[in-house]
Design a protein that fits this description.
The complex is a heterodimer of chains A (about 150) and B (about 525).
Chain A lengths: L5 H14 L10 H4 L32 H13 L4 H12 L17 H10 L14 H11 L4
Helix pairs in contact in A: 3-6, 5-6
Chain B lengths: L10 H15 L4 E2 L2 H6 L16 E3 L4 H14 L3 E4 L18 E4 L6 E5 L4 E4 L5 H10 L4 E2 L10 H6 L15 E7 L5 E3 L33 E8 L1 E2 L3 E9 L5 H14 L6 E4 L2 H4 L5 H4 L8 H10 L5 E9 L1 H15 L8 E6 L29 E6 L1 E4 L2 H17 L6 E5 L3 E11 L3 H20 L3 E2 L7 H7 L6 H13 L27
Parallel strand pairs in B: 2-4, 3-4
Antiparallel strand pairs in B: 1-2, 5-6, 6-10, 7-11, 8-9, 8-10, 12-14, 12-15, 13-18, 16-19, 17-19, 17-20, 18-19
Helix pairs in contact in B: 1-3, 6-11, 11-12
The chains are: A mainly alpha (about 150), B alpha+beta (about 525).
């Protein structure tokens, strides 16, 4: 087993984020739509958010869009209710920002160089990403997509 | 990270090997900068990352490229360290046991070659992650339910080959492997089981071969590079029912195991039953300092206060049944009758029916997620974790015995006690999570001393770890001491025969080839 213990974490995280009022995005919550939470209870977490598919081709000279590359290469942690999103949501809320800023795609203060640096050097719980995880060509596009801070 | 050369290789020899590898896979897929070496280091390393520093990494896309790399490694005496996706967090991540090894990163080999919903299996390459396979099943709307571990970011094959576990009836992942394709240390390509016959139709379905069956010699192993494998996947059940019990006291784990293990062995409960202690739920409610801001272990009186404040039992059993509705209802009645003599409170019940939505946290319904890794935030700083994970017989007597002994040692080292038991059959995996801030050398030191004490105590009482971090691979191997380590001697003879230059993952799980025998016992944590 991975050391990480999924099951015990589940309910508490649901409760913790619900108490904090953290709805991290406006993605349709099918679970809520089809029956919804018990009255007064915490809202259920959203469904798994599907990542964009990787296109066939030379990853060293990627022809994919930055948005899709971000979804596929970073989506394991940085889409709705991903580990990265949850931790960043806590940090953003603590700084007085709305919970939706936990999603990197919503941020307007990131620069391309900062994104590249964090991806390669790591930050907090974020591990350094190898050039197999994301190639330099792919990272340049992801950094341009996220780097709205200019 | 600066370049550490493999033992016996000159800078000139290393350069020649790198050039040859570039010729085999293209210069873009041989990664040897300082930044690359950092990216392949163990981010949870209990000590300096350089203890297990790679010299670089090479990433093939095809089995022919793997064979070419193995031939080059033999020619240049360049040791390789094979990883599937390199997300083995807590056990060394992608880092090699022997410094200077070149990581053979199979992350680009990410094809799903077969996916059969009728017979319930897939054939995949090592770079296929849990999310890749899950999303393919969802997109194709196939009636299959995966078993996923706590870290859904990793490789399906890598996890199974390292004996990872999940929480469904298919939770003992190594048992789902059926039919491997393997590149040996001399570059030969073999197929196990019925795959040894050209064009065999059933090699991912029948778990044996003709004569000796070798599949598991390639798990937790350095005897070959698995390039693809069959994995069985559970048909999606018609319904599933979750029964959740909060268990009040630490020693109640004895009757819980004695109640559940017989149901598991009889097949009334089919899943691998995960039973985490209270701290498993607290770690994502906030940071440790929010609940106890002093150094040292949280004292028992504060633990009892926290359980009351947060309405938690000491343990939680969130048991899940899978199958046709009538069968699940009948199974649930048996479970409830078994719990009744011990616990007045009935379980919380939650049904799921085929077609109902699942959410990101439905691990027991096969939804992969990396969120459980969030527990690292508990200690703050440069947080990391390791697990002390002995395997114990699934009886209350053994479980309580192991828990009392390990708890005494953990308390004596002034570390928080954070245990779980997973009933996988006639055994339990007892994972004791040890969390530390890598920026606090005194924390790292304490955890290392504690880990050594736990290993020695468990071995003295007849319990072994099922898996461990790079820094303890030799130590755990030493505890397998029947007939003066006869099994290790046998495996090392096989290793030398199949891989005479010892270039495949030297030191993996304490198996050292003659070529690097002098490295045994070095670079320990």
């Amino acid at each position: 087993m991975s050391r990480v213990q999924a099951l015990g974490v589940t309910l508490a995280l649901v409760a913790a984020l619900a108490v904090a009022g953290c709805k991290v995005s406006d993605t349709d919550n099918q679970a809520a739509a089809q029956g919804g939470p018990p009255a007064g209870g915490p809202p259920p977490p959203p469904p798994h958010q599907m990542r964009a598919q990787m296109a066939q081709g030379d990853r060293l000279n990627s022809t994919m869009e930055g948005k899709d590359l971000f979804s596929n290469r970073c989506g394991a942690c940085h889409l709705d209710w991903g580990m990265g999103t949850n931790l960043l949501t806590k940090q953003q809320v603590a700084q007085g920002k709305p919970p939706s800023m936990g999603l990197l795609a919503n941020r307007d203060d990131l620069t391309a160089d900062y994104v590249k640096s964090v991806v390669r050097m790591g930050k907090g719980a974020m591990p350094r990403q190898t050039r197999v995880d994301i190639t330099d060509s792919e990272l340049a596009k992801v950094a341009a997509f996220l780097g709205k801070g200019k | 990270m600066q370049l550490t050369l493999p033992p016996g290789l000159s800078p000139q020899g290393f350069d020649a090997a790198v050039k040859a590898l570039q010729g085999a896979v293209g210069p873009g897929w041989v990664m040897t900068t300082d930044e690359d070496r950092d990216a392949y280091a163990d981010i949870y390393a209990p000590g300096p990352e350089t203890l297990w520093g790679a010299s670089g990494a090479v990433a093939p896309q095809t089995v022919e490229e793997v064979q070419a790399i193995v031939r080059i490694a033999n020619e240049h005496k360049l040791p390789l360290w094979t990883v599937a996706r390199g997300k083995n967090l807590g056990y060394g991540t992608a880092a090699p046991r022997m410094p200077g090894s070149m990581v053979l990163d199979l992350g680009r080999m990410d094809k799903i070659l077969e996916l059969d919903p009728t017979l319930g299996y897939c054939v995949i390459e090592p770079g296929v992650g849990f999310m890749d396979l899950y999303e393919r099943i969802q997109r194709d709307k196939l009636p299959l339910m995966m078993s996923v571990p706590g870290n859904g970011w990793g490789s399906v094959l890598g996890n199974a080959l390292d004996h990872g576990i999940g929480y469904t009836p298919y939770g003992v992942h190594a048992k789902n492997l059926c039919g491997l394709e393997v590149v040996l240390g001399n570059g030969d390509l073999v197929r196990t089981g019925l795959g040894a016959m050209e064009k065999n139709q059933a090699w991912h379905l029948f778990p044996f071969g003709y004569g000796p069956t070798w599949d598991h010699m390639f798990s937790q192993s350095n005897l070959g590079v698995v390039t693809k494998a069959g994995m069985w996947i559970m048909p999606e059940p018609e319904t599933s029912l979750e029964l959740t019990y909060d268990i009040p006291n630490a020693d109640d784990i004895g009757w819980v195991i004695d109640t559940l293990a017989p149901l598991k062995i009889k097949g009334i409960v089919e899943q691998s039953i995960f039973i985490p202690s209270w701290l498993g739920k607290m770690v994502i409610k906030g940071q440790r300092k929010d609940f106890w801001d002093k150094p040292g272990a949280i004292p028992e009186w504060r633990v009892q206060e926290l359980l009351k404040e947060h309405k938690l039992g000491y343990w939680q059993v969130a048991l899940r049944l899978y199958g046709n509705e009538g069968i699940v209802k009948a199974q649930a009645e048996v479970v409830k009758a078994a719990f009744k003599p011990h616990l007045d409170t009935p379980p919380h019940e939650k049904w799921w029916h085929q077609g109902d939505p699942t959410n990101v946290m439905d691990t027991t319904l096969g939804v992969p997620s990396a969120v459980p890794l969030q527990m690292g935030d508990w200690v703050g700083g440069k947080s990391a974790h390791m697990g002390f994970s002995p395997v114990v017989p699934a009886t209350g007597k053994h479980v309580l015995d192991q828990m009392h002994r390990s708890r005494k040692i953990i308390d004596a080292h002034d570390v928080d006690f954070y245990a779980s038991f997973t009933i996988g059959g006639r055994f339990c995996n007892n994972v004791n999570m040890l969390m530390y801030d890598r920026d606090k050398p005194e924390d790292v030191d304490r955890i290392k001393k504690l880990f050594n004490a736990l290993i020695a105590d468990a071995a003295a009482n007849g319990y072994a770890e099922y898996r461990t971090h790079l820094g303890w691979m030799d130590a755990i191997s030493n505890t397998f001491n029947f007939q003066d380590h006869a099994m290790r001697r046998m495996t090392e003879k096989v290793k030398d025969a199949l891989d005479p230059n010892g270039i495949l993952s030297p030191g993996k799980n304490g198996i050292w080839p003659s070529a690097y025998a002098a490295q045994r016992g070095k670079n320990l944590a």
